[in-house]
Amino acid sequence: MPAPDSTRSSPGREPLEVAELRQLQQAHPELSDAAELQIRLFELQHRLQARLPHPTLDFADSTRRQALVTGCPVLSVDDLGIDWPELRLMAQRVAGVLQQFDALDAADAAATLDLSRDGDAFERVVREWYDRTGARPSDGSRHPSDAAGAAESLSQVLLLSMRPFLGRCAETAAAMLDTSTWSKGYCPLCGGEPEMAVITRAATRRLVCGRCLCQWDFDALACPHCRNADRTRITTFASRDRLYRIAACDECQRYLKAYDARHSERPFLPGLDSVATLPLDAAAIQRGYLS
Question: What is this structure's pTM?
């Protein structure tokens, strides 16, 4: 299922996620720039997503549904209903915002702009990026070389630019498919890796896709990256307010952050919670773990 609607707000008021990010700025000035960046990205993404039509998806034939049974994500890049001129413009705007906040250097921003002006090359790179950063249908693994695909900086621009299309498509797909039996560590819809997790009030864990924001149930402690389920090889620690937790795997040295909904009344908010957990990222990296 997709993430809860973080755009909801009362008439004349800011979206919930933006309002919460502004509160975070006041409470934690050291996170102010990161929060402002998220506000700018949120506004770009949701302005575009709000005017995108829901894509036409056909899950009537058994092949698509059988894909879930065999561990294959169901959405191809052609399912996303991409308006390529809109996506190219979005990439330019995202790159501009990232550069403004020193999250993208001038050379990478210029390279993104040049690429976005070449429609054929841009579409080819996006298709390669989508396949490379999603799970392989055969075994759920990923293409091994970042160098063979988009540079890391461009990959980040593409992720942020594609999210409105991915999110809109995920909303449609999630309403049509039963993913309750999915138990993989990657997204059942687009094959993306989990960006965070949500610990529900029932103490279950739901992974959140880093690409389309789809959520799905997963083992409460096992590592989604290597499937290590030995609890003696999982290191956990939490923020002081217990609102956020980290599960770090001592087998593959990767970690995953989680929003603990048992300690809050609000829903999970991707932009807000990614910024609020930056101190936990620093703590995990200091201990030698990778995201």
Answer: 0.89
